[in-house]
């Protein structure tokens, strides 16, 4: 195809189009600008998205205080949906838009929606001022955020991949992938200093708004950079040739050849990659603070440090994927995750809280209960009710990060905990005096656990082996770096240009939302059911194994795809 053919469409071919048609080695100035703009947008959108998690306490106090339980339950479900369910929906909406009207315009739309929603959260009045309208408006902004990020992430990978030659596509995509954790990093680097400078009271009162309002600065910079870019040359090519899809969603899901690729992408390419990434980036934070009782400040510093130190590995992974193939790198990453996740988390316990490890050996905990009344405590929204004595006892131990062994009791008897020779009687949350019993139970459990060496407060900082914990976190994050770059590059190459935006957005966000998003809730439920703080890790291990099998049996290498 010639430049004048593209020019007839009214598109600028002086930059991206010419660079695409050329085959000169190395990255061109245009490709570098494309990578910079895509990376900035990704950082910005994830910064916005992670702010809600980092400021969850302040947001709950401001928007949900005083709300009645029924409305609170509904809004909690909607808030959860905004964070996860809206992402694949946004992927389909903006994927279709990107395949019909172009990547650049879609890029601008997603970043504008995300930026406007985030800035608005910083201005919203609280429940005390406007009542129920406050949480409703907050949930609407969250839905807009989820919708926008659903269109942004896939678009960033596609836009970079469709500029330049295919021989270094993995390396170019890796620059965008490497900035994914940058959104989390930036949110922490903005929030933590503000908390320190303003003080806890002032920050909780109004200071929490500043990180949301600050996002307008990043938005304006990102818009300025993106407006200077050209349309994707591959999109211009199919537009000139009349090869565009008229119904990208129907073509993606309605044709078996494409639907089969979607299934391979979900369960082979993305399931293991998403869970391994979330396991290293987010579940480690949950495990250190909740199970091992490392204080939040130390945990944040360790996670930030490990994230910065492992960032170059995304680039190395992209280079490796260009050399040996995406499929081989992805299989290798899943294999490493399956083999080493469990021993590395056990090593975290040894180096982060050795007193806990010692207490488990010297005074094992035994729970005696009627196991027929025990529920599987899967509660991703935090609103479910588990009232049996078995549930209250096992959830208390799981939240405390304590392992236990199980013993059966006759039907109807109240569950109890034995630590050494001491026994702590459980209670039923449905009892009329449940609040009194709960307070007594919690106090007695804490005292008994402390007596036998189980620290109930934060882990002793003097006992934390910081260098070893940091190395372990880096190892876990390196698995995510290996699989994530290879997976998104492979996704881009699995589908034809005419439906690419739509097709990759569906498996990417489905896997991220369902498998990655449910990781903490699923792991906690498994921990509470089994009595082992490591048992929840079988979830990411199993996902990695399944992904490997699907890749080996059904996936084709895409390195030399167009």
Automatic annotation (TrEMBL):
Q: Which GO terms describe its cellular component?
A: plasma membrane
Query: Where exactly are the transmembrane stretches of this chain?
Result: 34-55, 67-86, 107-130, 136-161, 173-194, 206-227, 261-278, 298-317, 329-348, 468-492, 513-531, 537-555
Domain of life here?
Bacteria
Its primary localisation, in coarse terms, equals membrane
Q: Where found in the cell?
A: Cell membrane
Q: Which GO terms describe its molecular function?
A: transmembrane transporter activity
Transport recorded as keyword: yes
Query: What membrane topology does the annotation report for this chain?
Result: Multi-pass membrane protein
Give every Major facilitator superfamily (MFS) profile domain span: 34-559
Q: What keywords does the record list, in alphabetical order?
A: Cell membrane, Membrane, Transmembrane, Transmembrane helix, Transport
* Database matches in InterPro entries: MFS_dom, MFS_sugar_transport-like, MFS_trans_sf, Sugar_transporter_CS
Which PROSITE patterns does the annotation name? Answer: MFS, SUGAR_TRANSPORT_1, SUGAR_TRANSPORT_2
Its name, as the record gives it, is Major Facilitator Superfamily protein
């Amino acid at each position: 195809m010639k430049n004048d053919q593209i020019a007839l469409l009214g598109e600028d071919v002086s930059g991206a189009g010419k660079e695409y048609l050329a085959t000169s080695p190395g990255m061109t100035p245009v490709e570098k600008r494309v990578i910079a703009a895509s990376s900035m947008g990704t950082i910005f959108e994830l910064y916005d998205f992670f702010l809600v998690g980092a400021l969850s306490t302040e947001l709950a106090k401001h928007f949900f205080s005083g709300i009645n339980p029924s409305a609170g339950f509904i809004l909690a479900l909607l808030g959860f949906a905004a964070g996860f369910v809206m992402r694949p929906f946004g992927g389909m909406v903006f994927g279709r838009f990107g395949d019909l009207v172009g990547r650049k315009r879609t890029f601008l739309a997603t970043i504008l929606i995300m930026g406007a929603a985030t800035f608005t959260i910083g201005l919203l009045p609280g429940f005390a001022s406007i009542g129920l309208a406050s949480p409703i408006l907050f949930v609407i902004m969250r839905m807009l955020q989820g919708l926008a990020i659903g269109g942004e992430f896939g678009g960033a990978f596609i836009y970079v991949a469709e500029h330049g030659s295919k021989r270094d596509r993995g390396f170019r995509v890796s620059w965008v992938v490497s900035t994914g954790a940058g959104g989390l990093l930036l949110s922490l680097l903005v929030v933590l200093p503000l908390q320190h400078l303003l003080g806890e009271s002032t920050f909780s009162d109004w200071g929490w708004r500043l990180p949301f309002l600050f996002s307008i600065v990043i938005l304006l910079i990102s818009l300025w950079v993106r407006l200077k870019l050209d349309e994707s040359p591959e999109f211009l090519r199919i537009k000139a040739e009349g090869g565009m899809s008229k119904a990208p969603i129907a073509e993606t899901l309605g044709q078996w050849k494409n639907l089969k690729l979607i299934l391979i992408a979900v369960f082979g390419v993305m399931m293991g990659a998403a869970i391994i990434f979330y396991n290293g980036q987010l579940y480690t934070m949950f495990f250190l603070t909740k199970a091992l009782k490392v204080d939040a400040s130390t945990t944040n510093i360790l996670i930030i440090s490990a994230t910065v130190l492992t960032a170059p590995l995304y680039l190395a992974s992209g280079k490796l994927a260009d050399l040996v193939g995406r499929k081989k790198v992805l299989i290798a990453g899943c294999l490493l995750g399956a083999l080493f996740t469990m021993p590395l988390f056990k090593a975290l316990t040894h180096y982060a809280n050795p007193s806990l490890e010692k207490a488990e050996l010297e005074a094992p905990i035994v729970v005696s209960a009627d196991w027929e009344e025990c529920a599987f405590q899967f509660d991703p929204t935090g609103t479910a009710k588990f009232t049996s004595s078995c549930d209250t006892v096992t959830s208390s131990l799981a939240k405390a990060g304590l392992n236990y062994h199980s013993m059966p009791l006759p039907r109807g008897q109240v569950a109890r905990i034995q630590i050494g020779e001491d026994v702590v009687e459980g209670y039923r949350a449905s009892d009329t005096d449940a609040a009194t019993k709960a307070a007594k139970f919690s106090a007695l459990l804490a005292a008994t656990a402390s007596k036998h060496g189980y620290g109930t407060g934060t882990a002793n900082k003097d006992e934390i082996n910081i260098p070893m914990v940091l190395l372990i976190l880096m190892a876990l994050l390196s698995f995510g770096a290996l699989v994530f770059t290879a997976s998104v590059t492979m996704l881009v190459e699995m589908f034809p240009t005419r439906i690419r935006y739509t097709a990759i957005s569906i498996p990417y966000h489905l896997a991220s939302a369902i498998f990655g998003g449910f990781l903490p809730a699923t792991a906690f439920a498994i921990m509470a059911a089994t009595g082992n703080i490591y048992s929840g890790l079988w979830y990411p291990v199993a996902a990695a194994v399944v992904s490997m099998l699907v890749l080996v049996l059904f996936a084709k290498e895409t390195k030399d795809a167009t």
